[in-house]
Design a protein that fits this description.
Largest sheet: none
Shape: rod-shaped
Structural class: mainly alpha
Number of helices: 2
Helix content: over 70%
Number of strands: 0
Radius of gyration: 25 Å
Length: 59
């Protein structure tokens, strides 16, 4: 029983010491998302333009 209590105590101590994401990690994630959005919009730009032109023509 003591070994289980010791194990759980160490486990909870390790979990408390674990820190969350830092600002640098958030910046990297934001950068990757931004690049993905820019590339996606670049690849779809002709189709987006065609759809907008057809909407304008229908008005």
């Amino acid at each position: 029983m003591n070994s289980l209590i010791e194990y759980l105590s160490r486990l909870f101590a390790d979990l408390k010491e674990e820190s969350g994401q830092t600002m640098a990690e958030y910046a990297v994630v934001l950068g990757v998302i931004t690049i993905a959005v820019v590339v996606t919009l670049g690849l779809l730009s002709t189709k987006i333009s065609a759809v907008l032109n057809s909407v304008i023509a229908a008005m």
